[in-house]
Amino acid sequence: MRIQNTIVVLDFGGQTAHLIARRIRQLNVFSEIKRPDASLKELEKAKGIILSGGPNSVYDSNAPKFNSKLFSLKKPILGLCYGQQLMAQELGGKVEKGKVREYGLAKLEVKKSNGLLKGLGAKETVWMSHGDKVSGLPKGFEVIGSTSDCENAAVADLSRKYFGLQFHPEVTHTPNGLKILENFVLGVCSCKQDWTIENYIEQKCAEIKKQVGEKNVFLLASGGVDSTVALALLHKALGEEKIYALHVDTGFMRKNESSAVGKELEGLGFGNFHVVNAEAEFFEAVKGVVEPEKKRKIIGEKFIEVQNAELRKLKLNPDEWLLGQGTIYPDTIETAGTKHAARIKTHHNRVDSIKELIEAGLVVEPISQLYKDEVRELGEELGLPAEIVWRHPFPGPGLAIRCLCSDGKEENLDSFNEKAGAIAKEFGLKAEVLPIKSVGVQGDERTYAHPCMLIGEASWETLEKVSTKITNEVREINRVVKLVNPPELDSIELIKADLSRPRISALREADAIAMQKIQEHGLMKEIWQFPTVLLPLKTNGGEAALLRPVESLEAMTARFYPMKAEILEEIASEIVKLDGIGAVLFDLTHKPPATIEWE
User: Fold this and answer.
1) What DSSP state is assigned to residue 328?
2) In this structure, are residues 421 and 431 in contact, taking their beta carbons and an 8 Å threshold?
3) What is the 3-state secondary structure (H, E, C) of 122-157?
4) CA atoms in the 13 A half-sphere facing the CB of 140
5) Does domain 406-587 have CATH number 1.20.1050.80?
6) Which of 56, 59, 230, 342 is most buried, judged by most C-beta within 10 A?
7) 290 Cβ contact partners less than 8 Å away, ≥ 6 residues apart
8) Packing angle, helices 414-426 and 460-473, rounded to 10
9) May I ask the CATH architecture of the domain 197-396?
10) Planar angle of CA 477, 479, 482, nearest 5 degrees
């Protein structure tokens, strides 16, 4: 059975399109995210179209360009927030700045409970986040729901099956948001619930065969869940003889990982597989580099150099091969892979040379529209063992982006310390802003700001409150961490450091301890991902290691994992004994305002 029903979500920026698509798949209907300027040919097979929210104003000169001809398709359309305003303006209505900005919870008075709002109560809790509003409706539209500050909170042209909501049904803060989306997808669009992993496999295999044709696929296999599931799907679609998998040992892998990957993939029956040790090349390429984006780009380009060198050694004709990758959708969002998404980080699968190959149609990415939980479900359906399917995500550049570097130059942090210290003092804690920076994501934009270290004892609930208050009120801070071991520090000093072998070795051992301990305590599924990070901060005769366990469903948002005190102390006490490590910190920050990784 092939998937016959697709809802297309046009992405106008931020992460709302991502959340909408996730929610629709919960209804067992396939959703696909496309650029706002997608051609009519790309949209004509959709059962319905959703215009996502976004950070712009529709009347701004830099507002995203979109294909206004989509209204000629006579398909059901739902505009959300920015999408509602765009539809209203395009169809003859009026949009202007609101006298009152609505952020947070609001009460929607349902005025017409058929169609989009069918089955809802007279009053519904909804989540608002807007400054602009639709002040004049296009011809044919009527109000079907209002809040005290937004008369046109829900509007409809029932004859054309056009709907607009100023609030966000895709977020969990709108309790009946999924019901509203269900009314649109199943009711208005008459979609059949035929999205299953089994159907996806059948359809994707057909697409892979069509794209690859007479060519073959050369896949870079890290051994992580994404690349392994991509390999298994390509194997099912094309057969073993048309695939060659290469694992590159960059020198930035986890302890004993490269040898384990080779044995695992060989045991799974992937015969055309090779491991190449390129450690010396990668260390030389990043020697002296401290800027995180530059590190990512250098490593991404080096992957391609190593791949091309292997192709030459194997005497494989480049004209007969496509590049296979295990990229998933969150990777694309965070690296600005969709037109109006902000770049949070450069994913190694999205460096310039890869983008050129993608534009030329020379890259196969069989799971690029999936989220991590769907990738795992797909892996199980393809028969991969649980230890691979439930392996924690590990970045392509590996420990290289978990080993922070520095030129050793400090800036004056007195004013930040004063602000953060005053907040921490309210809760009986001390605070010190650290002289390093890390990547964060706030308002769907990339930040590069300081972490603040808390010193003292408090409950996880209190620490969470302090973390949230500091990152909300001190814009120069995007993370808050806690000192775990030792309980006090005599001093902490920024040092000059790059990606040296001794630093990576110390980090590798610390990471191995953390992963071993959570396996022993049965936390591999409970904790979504557990980066261990090395910070170029000298204290107690070594550098500071940091633990970053998080809970998440799809990696677009995440919560720091409140680990039991005895387990945390067990991990920290082992790590602090390692050569080169002088202290252990714990990251208390959610995503947003921080990212899961520090770089």
Assistant:
1) -
2) yes
3) CEEEEEEEEEEEEEECCCCCEEEEEECCEEEEEEEE
4) 12
5) no
6) 230
7) 405, 406, 407, 497, 498
8) 140
9) 3-Layer(aba) Sandwich (3.40)
10) 120
- Domain span(s) for CATH 3.40.50.620 in the chain: 197-396
**Which residue spans of the chain are classified as CATH 3.30.300.10?**
406-587
Query: What is the per-residue pLDDT across 510-557, written as a single tens digit (0 to 9) for each?
Result: 999 999 999 999 999 899 999 999 999 999 999 999 999 999 876 667
Distances (CA, A) of 559 to 324, 334, 526, 594: 32, 18, 12, 10
All CATH 3.40.50.880 domain ranges in the chain, comma separated:
6-188
104 by Cβ neighbours in 10 Å (0-12 / 13-18 / 19+) ranks as: exposed
Structure tokens at 58: 């529709």
The candidate with the shortest Cα–Cα distance to 90, out of 10, 34, 28, 205, is 10
Q: Which residue shows structure tokens 């005895």?
A: 566
pLDDT, tens digit, 9 for 90 and up, residues 26-74: 899 999 889 999 999 999 999 999 999 887 888 888 889 999 999 999 9
**Which CATH architecture group holds 6-188?**
3-Layer(aba) Sandwich (3.40)
Tokens 């159907």, residue located: 199
CA distance 364 to 211: 8
3-state SS class at 438: strand
CB 273 within 8 A of CB 243: no
> What's the whole-number mean pLDDT along residues 556-581?
94
Q: Quick one: DSSP state of residue 396?
A: T
Torsion angle (degrees, nearest 10) of CA 436, 442, 445, 449: -10
- DSSP letter string, 225-274: HHHHHHHHHHHHHH-GGGEEEEEEE-S-SPTTHHHHHHHHHHHTT--SEE
Q: Which residue bears the tokens 């808390």? A: 454
Which residues are designated catalytic?
Answer: 81, 168, 170
3-state secondary structure 108-124: EEECCCCHHHCCCCCEE
Task: State which of 312-321, 360-369, 495-504 shows the largest mean pLDDT.
Answer: 495-504
Give the burial string for 554-574 (b: 16+ CB within 10 Å, else e).
bbbbbebbebeeeebebbbeb
End-to-end CA distance of the chain: 43
Distance, CA of 326 to CA of 219 (rounded, Å):
8
Tokens 């054309």, located at residue: 160
pLDDT tens, position by position, 337-360? 444 444 333 444 545 666 676 676
Contact between 441 and 428 under an 8 Å Cβ cutoff? The reply is no
In order of 274, 280, 325, 347, 359, the CA distances from 363 in angstroms are 20, 27, 7, 15, 9
pTM for the whole structure: 0.74
Locus of tokens 């797909």? 378
CA atoms 192, 376, 563, 434: torsion sign: negative
The strand pair at 581-587 and 542-547 is best described as parallel
Is the pLDDT at 323 greater than 80, yes or no?
yes
CA 94 to chain centre: 35
Determine the pLDDT at residue 147: 92
